[in-house]
Amino acid sequence: MPTNIQDRGLKRALQQVISDRTAGAPTLKINEEMMNNIILEVADSPFATRGQVEKRLADAGTPAERLAVVQKGLDDGEAKDIAKMLAHPSFARMLEPAAENFLKAVIGAEPLNPSLFGTNGAAPVSSPTITPEAKAAVAEMKGLIQSRQLQKYYDAAIGIGDASLKDKAIKLFEALPTVHSATTADEMVALGLWTTKPRGIEAMQTSARYLPGRQLVVPAKVNTDLRSGRDFLAWDDNGVEALTYRATLVSEDGDNFMVKIDGKDDPIAVPKETVYKRNQPHIIEGKNVRIGSKQANYEDKFLKAKVCEAALRMDELVGRLDFTKLQASPQGGGLLSVFGGRGNSGEDISAIQRKCVGIIHDVIDMKYRTSNARSDPGRADTNDAGRLAVKGIGVCNEQAAVMGAMLTPFQDLIGFDFAMMSGGVYRNTNRSGSMQDQYSTFRRPAHGWIQVTYRPSMEMRIIDRTWQQKDKPADLAYSPGGDRFPSGYQGGIPVAAIESTDVVMDGSVTVDTYDRQFGTAGVDDRTNHMSNRDDH
Amino acid sequence: MPEETSTGLWAIHSTKDHKPLMRGWANSKGEAEAILTQLKASDPEPEDEYWILEMSEVEADNFRLTELLHDFV
Fold first, then answer.
1. What is the Cα–Cα distance from A60 to A521, expressed in whole angstroms?
2. pLDDT > 80? residue A466
3. Looking at beta carbons, which residues of chain A come within 8 Å of B1?
4. pLDDT at A29
5. Looking at residue B6, what is its pLDDT?
6. pTM higher than 0.80, yes or no?
7. Could you give the ipTM of this predicted complex?
8. Are A198 and A321 in contact (CB under 8 A)?
9. Which pLDDT value is given to residue A28?
């Protein structure tokens, strides 16, 4: 069904939206945020610069105000093109209700429906209702975990176990509280999910994201020859301009960060905007979490059950999370606040956080798409996040999306940022090729996973469900033995803006990274670095 | 394919060291088998296992995008 879009700008914008969506979660719905380029093209006019239009749209506080800005720039050709897009069944199927309504309203095909618009174009979420029924359901689930009976309830609820238990199981899951990204630690305690909340959680939430010593992914001139051992993705004067994870933030200089690349003595200047683009977390909040063509529904009985199960299983660990332990301590003649490095008081925090995330990983029961998995009784092939988490099937991006949905309620409580990653693999690269040829091959998106950055340590690790790696340091995960390259973020998900507390480069706070690459002699240092080891 | 309607789209998968990947997709089983043969011949190191599987509706939705992209441009 050829559909010729006449307006060149609109055609480009549409291509971008579709490409972003294709590179993103497999069956992501197009929301209003993803349509920004299309909206800008329409709102643009000979009488207003692109910058002016962007500012007007940014200043517009409500969907109705945005609509007015867009309609002011709409011409007849654009209206016809939008009508063509909306008439295309495949495109229409991809649109979220809010996005579809907005486009239709732009061309006057239907009135704007404000009830469809919330945070990031999604319906707003409300705080969990702390009722006696919800608390009783939490207590019952806690008992089932302790008595190891919970799996029987899941099995019964999805129709593969004790049929007489089915109604009871479903009733229990439905009675559980809705826990999502806006749920506070106090509410977790009030609901009975946690005995106590982490101490000093507010300090963690406002800790710096960019501080001396943190690991970064940045572009640099590096060696992309997979045969180069310890030099792989290290600086090379004759190398290829490529992304590398072998980068450490050193200082700032105006609009640039100074970044140390392994293999080069002097730090290089990298524009701050570039650093932010590659290292800021995704904004995955509220109902802005999509699995396939559906938003993750935190009110769904199965997702409620899995989120509550994870919360209950990490209760003891959460009680040990104490961010107030991260006190200033003298280091190397100066006073540094030491966050998270091995061999100091931060060690326990990061280890506890990672165990909590490991629990979230482990409560999900998903298998990769094989014919055996499909024939496994009760294993669902769906885009319903909760049902997938109970017993589902999916390729890398689908499993990462479910993991993302499960991580979201915990990120501000446990202390971590995350991004949905899209990247290549090394193993199918012809290693006799030139550096450029090898890079062109292994940067090609072939795999999806989650990159987690713990706060306040800013320690970068990965979770890869389909490869059964729930907590792998980025250094190992992105090494040749790790077999994955962080080509970029999945498209279509907004990236967080920089907050006033994010950048602290005055040296008052640092990450103790001496051991990240070089560490304890003979244990963590370069002699034992992943590039010198053959066990991964 | 239980609980699924036929989509007519096929995915090609492979795995090595328990690291599965989806390698490509095709409009028919025959085309998928041809891609599979090509991958087996071109992979620098053979994978432990290769297989093809008809896509579910959920998977297929993603790949309709590519078709859509061709439609619009």
1. 57
2. yes
3. 374
4. 62
5. 78
6. no
7. 0.87
8. yes
9. 53
Q: Which of B44, B45, B61 is closest, CB to CB, to A292? A: B61
The answer to whether the CB atoms of B11 and A93 lie below 8 A apart is: no
Amino acid at A342: R
Cα gap B58→B7, rounded to integer Å: 10
From chain A, pick out residues whose CB is under 8 angstroms from the CB of B22. Answer: 369, 395-396, 446
CA–CA gap between residue A313 and residue A436 (Å, rounded): 47
Q: Hey, are the CB atoms on A26 and B61 less than 8 Å from each other?
A: yes
Average pLDDT estimate for A91-111: 84
**Which range (A92-101, A102-111, A151-160) has the least confidence?**
A92-101
How wide is the angle at C-alpha A143 spanned by C-alphas A142 and A145, nearest 5°? 65
Secondary structure of A257-272 in the HEC alphabet? EEEEECCCCCCEEEEH
Among the listed residues A315, A308, A314, A323, the one whose alpha carbon sits nearest the alpha carbon of residue A194: A315
Length of chain B in residues, anyone? 73
Q: Does the pLDDT at position A250 exceed 60?
A: yes
Contact A441, A487 (CB under 8 A): no
- Using CA atoms of A55, A58, A63, A66 in order, give the dihedral in degrees to the nearest 10: 10
A84 or B4, which is more confident? A84
- Compute the distance between CA of residue A450 and CA of residue A489 in angstroms, rounded to an integer: 9
Which range is least confidently modeled, A350-359, A402-411, A494-503?
A494-503
| Mutate which: A28, A367, A428, vs B, most B CBs within 10 A | A428
Query: How confident is the model at residue A337, as a pLDDT?
Result: 41
Q: From the CA of B24, how many Å to the nearest CA of chain A? A: 9
Inter-chain CB proximity A427 and B58 less than 8 Å: no
